[in-house]
Every structure is written in structure tokens, then in C-alpha cells.
């Protein structure tokens, strides 16, 4: 990236033109999600907070944007045999729904430890489920076998330019809805969401700050930023089941260049933020979706002089597919 904030076209897997193309391709299928705010949360945080509620997106999460863009950009000859993906949750449901809308089969590889509510979403949208072990190696080998058996096309959860472009449509909406935004806080996992959000937002408004929010038990992005290369962890341990993936070779360069900082929070802060979303915003938010609020309220953000002039902050509430059984258990601990 050049120092003036201008993003060179062709340098990354997506850019502002591919994101604008995605918007045209998917806008008849997706919801334009609302912005919510709370005077109480503004006073607690000392900023104006604007919650971009992707929990109200079709499928209950932002993932439907990328999945729709990927699936509707396939040629008919490619699409006819269907699509395959591996995902523990929201991407699986999103691919199932987008494939259903296109009228093609969706083969979904799901690890056995996925939350029940997310598996039910896949069934609801007609995805055909194949089970794998919880490891990425198992997920990928089962996916490869399904592709060989069916001829289906792989739709990767995040490491795909079409997915990144679809997720970037969030920024196009957000900056139309609240043009005065100076900072966007985004959950980070594989990096598809934050890559799209950062590419679009910085192309439209180069001065905008993009901050990632990440759980301590899966803090590979923070470690990667510090090391200047992709770091993967031997294991992850966090209530935020949607934030356990590692950066890919397409998302990492964008995160490296365009994400200003990664804010790491504890699981107990995430649960507290979920509770606030329920009680104050009256919105059901999954742990991964509440992490942005946890980050803005965290000591490391509040006490960092670098962010003292972040006054109009958008928080991407990435999803609302909460496994209520596990949630009540975590509250009672």
C-alpha cells in the first residue's frame, strides 16, 4: 500500500471495483442491515457507537454476503454440479441458502463439535451435511473427497476474492448510513470479513481506522501482526466459536497492510458484551458478534492514547446465531 492510503488495484484478492460489482450482484438477495445505537453504551464507552447489525442478515450473519457473491458469480457450467464448503457454522448456512436460491446442490462439511444451532441452520436451508473431525486437516480431506465424488466447486469460507468482495459490501452500506464514521471495529478470524471491510472503507475514506477484535484464546492475528508473517496456533480455546480460524494467504496481506491494530479481549469480556447487547440493545448476538463491543470497552482500547480521538465508531455485529444452551451454562459459571 502507498503511504497516502491509496490502495493499488490488483495488489490484493479484491478491490473497491470488485466490491462494487458484488453489491450489484447480491443486493436483490441480501438485507441492507440496520444501524443501532444506545446513549447508555455511548456514555459507558465515552464515544458514539454505531452497531452495524449483521445479526439481522439472512442466515443470521454477514457470511451470506460473501456466499451469495461467490455462488452467483459462477457460470452455469460451473454451478450445475453444486458447491462444497467446510465450516463450523455461519458460512455453512450461508452457502446452503445461497445455493438454494440459485437452485443448485450444496455439500457442507461440518466438524463434529459445531454448535447445534448452526447445524440446524444448514439443515433448514437444504444443505447436505458430511461430518468431519474438528481439525482443519480432516475438514479439508473430507471436502476434497466430496469434490471428487460430485464435481462440486469449493467455496472457501474466507480465503477467496469473491468472498472478500461480498463481505466488503458492508462498508459500502455503512458509510452511506453513517458517513461520519472514523473507526470500524471488526471481529477477526480467517480475515475475510475484515479484509473486505478494510478494502472498501479505506478506498472510500483513506483516513478511516480499521481495528480488529480477537479473543485471547485464538489470538493468531495479533501474533501474526507482531511477527510480520502468518502465525497459526496449535489449538484455540474461546467461547467465540466463529473466531477459531487462521488467516489465509489472500487475507493476510490485506490484514498486514490495512488493519491498524488488533485488540485482544478475554472470554469473560465477550460474555459481558453479549449480556449488554441483550439487555441494552435488545439484540441476540453470538460471542463472535459481541467481541467488537468488548474491544471498545476494554482497558487496552480505553487507555491507549493512539485511539483517544476515535469518536464515531462503527462496530460490526457479525452474527446472531447463539447456541443458547452453551450461553446459559457460561452465564452460570
TrEMBL record:
GO terms for biological process, alphabetical: D-serine biosynthetic process; L-serine metabolic process
Entry EC no(s): 4.3.1.18, 5.1.1.18
UniProt KW keywords: Lyase, Magnesium, Pyridoxal phosphate, S-nitrosylation
Pfam families: PALP (PF00291)
Domain annotation Tryptophan synthase beta chain-like PALP: ranges: 27-319
Necessary cofactors: pyridoxal 5'-phosphate; Mn(2+); Mg(2+); Ca(2+)
PROSITE patterns associated with the record: DEHYDRATASE_SER_THR
Molecular function as annotated in GO: ATP binding; D-serine ammonia-lyase activity; L-serine ammonia-lyase activity; magnesium ion binding; pyridoxal phosphate binding; serine racemase activity; threonine racemase activity
Physiological role: Catalyzes the synthesis of D-serine from L-serine. Has dehydratase activity towards both L-serine and D-serine.
PANTHER family: SERINE / THREONINE RACEMASE FAMILY MEMBER (PTHR43050), SERINE RACEMASE (PTHR43050:SF1)
Protein family (similarity comment): Belongs to the serine/threonine dehydratase family.
Record-given protein name: Serine racemase
Annotated source species: Aquilegia coerulea
Amino acid at each position: 500500500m502507498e503511504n497516502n492510503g491509496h490502495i493499488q488495484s490488483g495488489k490484493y484478492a479484491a478491490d473497491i471495483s470488485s466490491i462494487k460489482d458484488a453489491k450489484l450482484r447480491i443486493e436483490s438477495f441480501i438485507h441492507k442491515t440496520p444501524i443501532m445505537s444506545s446513549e447508555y453504551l455511548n456514555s459507558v464507552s465515552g464515544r458514539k457507537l454505531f452497531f452495524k447489525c449483521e445479526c439481522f442478515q439472512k442466515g443470521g450473519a454477514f457470511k451470506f454476503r460473501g456466499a451469495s457473491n461467490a455462488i452467483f458469480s459462477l457460470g452455469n457450467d460451473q454451478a450445475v454440479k453444486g458447491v462444497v464448503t467446510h465450516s463450523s457454522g455461519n458460512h455453512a448456512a450461508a452457502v446452503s441458502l445461497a445455493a438454494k436460491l440459485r437452485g443448485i446442490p450444496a455439500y457442507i462439511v461440518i466438524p463434529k463439535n459445531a454448535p447445534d444451532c448452526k447445524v440446524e441452520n444448514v439443515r433448514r436451508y437444504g444443505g447436505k451435511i458430511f461430518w468431519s473431525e474438528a481439525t482443519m486437516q480432516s475438514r479439508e480431506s473430507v471436502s476434497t473427497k466430496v469434490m471428487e465424488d460430485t464435481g462440486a466447486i469449493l467455496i472457501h469460507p474466507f480465503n477467496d476474492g469473491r468472498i472478500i468482495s461480498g463481505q466488503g459490501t458492508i462498508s459500502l452500506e455503512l458509510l452511506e448510513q453513517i458517513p461520519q464514521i472514523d473507526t470500524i471495529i471488526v471481529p477477526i478470524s480467517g480475515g475475510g470479513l475484515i479484509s473486505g471491510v478494510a478494502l472498501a472503507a479505506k478506498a472510500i475514506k483513506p483516513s478511516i481506522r480499521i481495528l480488529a477484535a480477537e479473543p485471547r484464546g485464538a489470538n493468531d492475528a495479533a501474533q501474526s501482526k507482531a511477527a510480520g508473517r502468518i502465525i497459526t496456533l496449535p489449538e484455540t480455546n474461546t467461547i467465540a466459536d466463529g473466531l477459531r480460524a487462521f488467516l489465509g494467504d489472500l487475507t493476510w496481506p490485506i490484514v498486514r497492510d490495512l488493519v491498524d491494530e488488533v485488540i485482544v479481549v478475554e472470554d469473560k469480556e465477550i460474555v459481558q458484551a453479549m449480556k449488554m447487547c441483550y439487555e441494552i440493545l435488545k439484540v441476540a448476538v453470538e460471542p463472535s458478534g459481541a467481541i467488537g463491543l468488548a474491544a471498545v470497552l476494554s482497558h487496552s482500547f480505553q487507555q491507549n492514547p493512539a485511539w483517544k480521538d476515535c469518536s464515531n465508531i462503527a462496530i460490526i455485529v457479525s452474527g446472531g446465531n447463539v447456541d443458547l444452551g452453551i450461553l446459559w451454562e457460561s452465564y452460570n459459571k
